[in-house]
Every structure is written in structure tokens, then in C-alpha cells.
Amino acid sequence: MADQRLIVALDTTDRARVEALVGELGELVGYYKVGMELFYSQGPDIVRCLRQQGKEVFLDLKLHDIPNTVAQALRPLVGLGATMLNLHASGGTKMMKAAATALREEAKLRNVPCPKLIAVTVLTSMDATEWESLGCVREIAQQVSELAKMAQAAGLDGVVASSQEAALIRKACGDSFAIVTPGIRPAGSATDDQARILTPREAIEAGADYLVVGRPITAALEPRKVAEDILRQMKEGKL
């Protein structure tokens, strides 16, 4: 059975490439992230296709607008069967509460399992220099912690955050609050455009529940071999 803590990011517009990658990874990977690139180019059918193959889907659209707009935008997404959806915590408490309410109402109306709803805190591509250039007074880690607490109070299931802040979030929000961490890079791999990163083992040890890994796997000459290595590193962390 696949380790559902590993989510492979399908950040591409190429449907054929997605099908080939999912086929190559086979039973090893059971959870995939469909982001803006893939969803906007291929449409909702890509989510349905993955679900028909028995795969879990994190639909990563990072919704951010006024409360009513986000709430109504989430309703049709419930019907796609994604396991997890997200929005930006910086949209505020009212937006997050409206979204959580709409999601649960829609799932009940459709008589389907309610997807997890999580909030993006601070993008993992953001470093301290760029953060300061935005005029932010709090340090990144402090802001992430505060946004996580806001999301939990608004009724969300978890957050997206750098693995570097995972331990802080776990302390602030408890064991039942989901922490999804992108910016994972196996030891020795390129950082690409990620700034706040950890290795798979470090992320698990810090308290992350799910690791989102894209280019280290999807751009590799042997994706399955890299995925196997990442899963091995994850098992070396705390279970």
C-alpha cells in the first residue's frame, strides 16, 4: 500500500506526461497534487481521471478573494472528488469561515465525503529578504504560526507551510491539525526556486503530515527510483 504522506506534484500542462508519470510510479504513489498549471490547462477532468485510478488528489488552487466568492467557488470543486482543497490564509478569518461552512454544506448536499480544507500560510519560495521588502514586521516563522492558529480557529483542517515551521505549528495547533509541506528536497538535490526547505527525513521529524515533492521526482531520469529513495528517507524520520 502506498505511503499517503508523500504527495507528488504534477506541475505541468502536459497530459501525456502526467499519464506516463502516474503509470511509471504505479502503486508506489497514491497521492498527487494538481495545481494551477495542470488544472487550468486540462480542466476538471484531470482530477476525475486520477480519482478513477484510485489516487488521492490535493487540488492546489490557492483560492483568495472576498468571502462569498471563495465560498461559492469551492462548491463545484466538491463534486470533483478531490481529497484536499486549499485557500490563502491571508484572505482572513471571515473568508476562511465562509469557505469551511460552504464546503461542509455542499458535501452534505451531494452526500459525499467532505474534502479537507487547508490554508496556505507563507509561500516556501519566500525568503527573509523578500519578506522584509513587503513591509512585513513579523518574522516569517511568527507569521506562519499566527496564520495557522487563525485557520484552525476558522474551522480549517490544516495548513500549507514550510517544513521549517512545522514544529512551531505542531506546538501551536496540536496533533490533529494537518501540516502539508512543499519545498522538500532530498539531500544533494537542487533547491530550484524554493527558499525554506528541509530533507524528507527532517520534515517528518519536524512534525509534517504530508510532503509535497515535485521536480526532484518529476524531472528525474528515473522518477520511481527517486520516489523510492524519498519514501525511504521519510521512514527514517518519526512514524
Low-confidence stretches: none
Structural class: alpha/beta
Main beta-sheet strand count, sense and barrel state: 8 strands, parallel, barrel
Tell me the count of domains: 1
Which strand order do you get reading across the main beta sheet? 1-2-3-4-5-6-7-8
CATH superfamily: Aldolase class I
What structural keywords apply?
239 residues; TIM Barrel; alpha/beta; 8 strands
Description of the molecule:
- By secondary structure, this protein is α/β, with parallel strands linked by helices.
- It has a single domain (6-236), classed as Alpha-Beta Barrel (TIM Barrel).
- The chain contains 11 helices and 8 strands.
- The chain has helices at residues 15-25, 36-42, 45-52, 67-78, 93-110, 128-133, 140-153, 166-173, 200-206, 215-218, 223-236; strands at residues 6-9, 31-35, 56-63, 84-88, 116-120, 158-160, 178-181, 210-213.
- Helix 4 runs parallel beside helix 5, helix 7 (140-153) runs parallel beside helix 8 and helix 9 runs parallel beside helix 11.
- The longest helix has 18 residues, at 93-110.
- The mean pLDDT is 92.
